[in-house]
Amino acid sequence: MDLTAMKLAFPGLLAEKLPSGSLRYRVRVEGDKTRRIPLTVTPDHPQFMEIYRAARAGVKLDPEAPPEDRAIRGSIGWLAAKHLAATEREVKAGSVSALTLKKRRSVMKVLTDLYADYALDIPPAKLVDLRDSLIETPAWADSVIEGIRAMYRWGAERRLCSINPAIGISRIDRGKGGAIPWTANDLRKYREKHEPGTTPHLALTLFMFTACRISDAIRLGRQHETTMEGVRALRWQPAKKGSAEVTIPMLPPLYKATRAAKIEGPTYLLNYRGQPFSTPDSLGQMFRRWCRDAGLKDRSSHGIRKAAGHLLAQEGCSQYQIMTVHGHTQAKTSEVYTKGVERWKLARDAMAALETMEW
Description:
The chain has 15 helices and six strands. By secondary structure, the protein is mainly α. It folds into three domains: 63 residues, no CATH class; 82 residues; 164 residues, Intergrase catalytic core (hpI Integrase, Chain A, Orthogonal Bundle), CATH 1.10.443.
């Protein structure tokens, strides 16, 4: 190993040859030439960079320590690691979903890839730079900032930090109303491509006649069928935290589609191996492929849920009726479907009163 090149690559790193012929590594603490921290790993160790950087900052790390202990205390990487560790414990306790953990891991990776060694009081301008670097995916850029803001909020509640540099950073995604609701023509094109008896057809039917989220679609099966007052129904507790239990009639198109499937399994929707989809993401990716096959490249399962909400509203369902189908617990969540329709009905009824007026 070229020791001269190593000194250039790692300032403060000292390599000393022992009588046995092996090398001992020590790191001179930055700003204190008299203090040297011995390293317990060699440069080819996968955690060498973490341990080297910590030693330069005056901290000796155990390579087997958890991530939050390996990071430099008081750094962004340290808070991010502690936040993720806490979220993992919440998932095990059942208070946070695995999808939430997956998203937070992605956010923390984006943050720490750039700013792991920065102090917690990082200038907000740095976070704005991070947001702007993701401008091509504005929704993701805003999600990253929101995740960072949540991390700092979590840390402040536990007195791990006293500031939140992400507060006040505005959104750059002006929004396009979220997922695009499916039209009657979209539904027709999809069904023309995917015939009854196929999994793609069953998936569309399940989404349309239950308005379920994709996190529930991978779980729903015959075990959720029940009878309510002589009517065949589906009854389930949505996976999304805070959702109300849903019980809805199982309409003939859905019943027919579930019975047309060639293979019966523990769930209605089965992958090409005849097994339930393991994650919402796996079903989501497959459903988007089915949509593309039908010439619907910008459509998603959530757009069907939105379409169902709009159709229910147009058929005269109240805001609270839509709440029961969608599993919402707050009226404002379902208001998006009824607001325009109800305003039209009110206007129509009001104008009807003028029809008999003499003019």
